[in-house]
Amino acid sequence: MNVISTQNPAVDDSQQRLERLTGISQRLLERARAMGASQAEVSCSEDRGLDVNVRLGEVETVEATHDRGIAVTVYFGQRKGSASTADLQESSLEATVAQACAIARHTEDDPAAGLADPALMATEFPDLDSWHPWELSAEQALDLALACESAGRQSDSRISNSDGASASTAQSVSVYANSHGFIGRDRSSHHSIGCALIAGQGDGMQRDGWYTSAIAREDLDDPAAVGLRAAERTVARLQPRSLPTGEVQVLFAAEMARSLIGHLLSAVSGGALYRRASFLLNSVDTQLFPQWFGIEELPLLRRGLRSSSYDGEGVATRNSALITDGVLQRYILGSYSARKLGLQTTANAGGVHNLKVKANAGDRASMLSGMGTGLLVTELMGQGVNGITGDYSRGAGGFWVENGQIVYPVDGITIAGNLKQMFAGIEAVGTDVDKRSHVAVGSILVGKMTVAGND
């Protein structure tokens, strides 16, 4: 029996909540206009959720949340002020607008300040299939977490302890409105089940885990399967070795590979660029990756983890390339950073939407076979990345590979290189995409990195 599908949905009141938030946002915009603001924008959100945690078969925490937030930003010409509240009483809302206006009147002019161009506002709002609420009771959530942990603990005698298991469900409704007349309304849901286990004894203990997450509950993995995966990963780490210092091929497992894409995104984001704190300054139309490599942004993907028809400023999103044939096509900009750079927004206020990285190889097994000998990285530690120079040095763990086969676990090592060289040195991207992220990328093979160990 699939325990994930047993709960009947309750009455859905999300549309009524959206209407209420829409009314609040319009009143706040009118109030800002009455107080002399030349432009204004309002963000309203309401979140509900349930999060439970168990450990060693016992309940640790049960937390139900019901949060809301109202943020108001006003512009007096090119002077900006912002204020926020969680109190929906009219007196509090009026005080929030007054506070934002007072702040704006005392700030300096900023030539880049202001709303996005009104001509860029979204006018079409397709259903992106992001709303799948799960009316999960605390008892049912605990059963899911307990089933997950139990399956992992009982699967292997070397599992000696547990760091616990969890189950959670969350839903959010939000409204963004501005004085251009734009009103955007959004509903989203997110659910997860996971556990972390401990194998071995004493100084030889190892910890690892796994989780499943999705917008819709039917897309979650079975809790027992999650527990078994956590146990397999934990036991595989027992009796690790270090490595001698040298240069080797490095295969980043899919769940680690997305961090490499994250470093790219940070380097081509407007904030880093206008502050001149990026190793990729003036890099549009520059070959950064091999010719076969590509990244697309797909904000209108149905049931995508970061799908939206508009960005954080109401600008209409669209499918577009970030990398084509290895060449950087554009930066990642909201209207403020775009003005600072003399460019136009790329509809990325608030960040990127769904990214798809082009694959040129098969699954992880075929990539290991093609690599032959090298390091498979399944864990990264530390923040040793210099955004200005691109220098990269992080603690790592994983597995040593010979003749295309994993031969032993590895930890206590550091992997190092320079991101520009690492990007150019990517030899393969796999099809083994980790679907738990809005960055859809498989394992990434980098042809050469320095590995420093204790041997």
UniProtKB/TrEMBL annotation:
One MF term in the entry's GO annotations: metallopeptidase activity
GO biological process: proteolysis
InterPro entries recorded: Metalloprtase-TldD/E_C, Metalloprtase-TldD/E_cen_dom, Metalloprtase-TldD/E_N, PmbA, TldD/PmbA_N, TldD/PmbA_sf
A single Gene Ontology CC term: cytosol
Top-level taxonomic group: Bacteria
Residue ranges constituting the Metalloprotease TldD/E N-terminal domain according to the UniProt record: 40-104
Domain Metalloprotease TldD/E central, first and last residues per copy: 132-238
SUPFAM superfamilies per the UniProt record, alphabetical: Putative modulator of DNA gyrase, PmbA/TldD (SSF111283)
Residue ranges occupied by any Metalloprotease TldD/E C-terminal domain in the UniProt entry: 245-453
A Pfam family recorded for this sequence: PmbA_TldD_3rd
Protein family (similarity comment): Belongs to the peptidase U62 family.
Stored PANTHER family: METALLOPROTEASE PMBA
NCBIfam families for the chain: PRK11040.1
Official protein name in the record: Peptidase PmbA
